[in-house]
Amino acid sequence: MKNKFLTLLILLTICISIVGCNKSENNKKITQNNPKNTKETAHTHFKFEEYGLEYDLPKTWIKYKDKKQLDIDIYDNTESKEYLIAQIKYGFLSAKDINKLMKLGKNAKTQEAQMKFLLEYENSIKKICSIVVFDKNKENINQREELFSKYDNHEQLKTNENLEYYILYNKKYDLSGLSENDKKEYKEICESINDLKKSIKISKPITQKEKFDKYKTVSFKTKTTDGKEIDSSIFKNYKLTMINMWETSCGPCIKELPDIQKLYDEVKKENINIIGIVMDLYIDKDSENLKLAKKILNENGVKYTNIIPNKELIDGLLKDIIGAPTTIFVDNKGNIVGQTIVGSRSKENYLEEINKILKNLK
């Protein structure tokens, strides 16, 4: 799973198919649900409970984050059985590169232009550091050496049960292609890595299952994206309901919508329902995201019901979601049943889980 929540608004101009999801069992792509699941406070404090990591951005970094010059790239692999659990990469973008990328992004209408934009974006980033988390029980020397080769300094942080934590950075930074002012800004960021290291806290990881175990049922009274009143009593009309929680800024979420619609067309004949919860909408606000959500649903041919979360959902179930998309299942009484699925899946994967649940419901 790779989550890239870029600080640049130009990400919105990228075609969703370019940042589509890998639907293999061991490499699912998700988007961090910020701020709800990382508990990002004022965009300066990050907490990743799924791998027991917490830290504050250095004060000198915050102004560059606000200016969109701090790039954050998160690779999350907590559900696989691989050595690398997570990698959080920080990079720097000069003001000149941001302006150039903004123009490229706005004009990226074709797939070729979008690929050019992404390549240009990656090439423009100057490395700051990486925080990596390994599962020491699945040690892979080659993978570790490949990661370490990109940085000349590798400091191990506190270990936690079977996990190892490292911070990787360069003592000598690549200043090529930067103006004198850019060099000064880049140096200022790189020289503040010690402040980042001091703030890092390691704790016991909490899985999505552990976070969801306290929820036995799903309840809501809200509106659909079409403005119709809806509440959780609809569950009683179906023997099983699949609930797919997604965000308008999440490429993998949007990528799987057509597959979920095909699944809905197939299972509704068996009295099985599917609803979506658009996590970045709010029932008490006239959000521009609602227009975007409706546009996304329309463009992907989605006919099944999608709802706007009310306060009960936001303060409850959605607060404890690790990443988007996340999918759960409820029976006709609203009880959560089966496995919680984090990350995108194919129609066949979802159908397999549905059939498994139906056997247990009999």
Automatic annotation (TrEMBL):
Q: What name does UniProt use for this protein?
A: Thiol-disulfide oxidoreductase ResA
Listed Pfam families: AhpC-TSA
Per the record, the domain of life is Bacteria
Q: Which Gene3D superfamilies match?
A: Glutaredoxin (3.40.30.10)
Source organism per UniProt: Clostridium tepidiprofundi DSM 19306
Check the record and name the InterPro entries matching this protein: AhpC/TSA, Thioredoxin-like_sf, Thioredoxin_domain, Thioredoxin_ResA/DsbE_sf
- Which residues belong to any copy of the Thioredoxin domain? 211-359
**Gene Ontology MF terms:** antioxidant activity; oxidoreductase activity
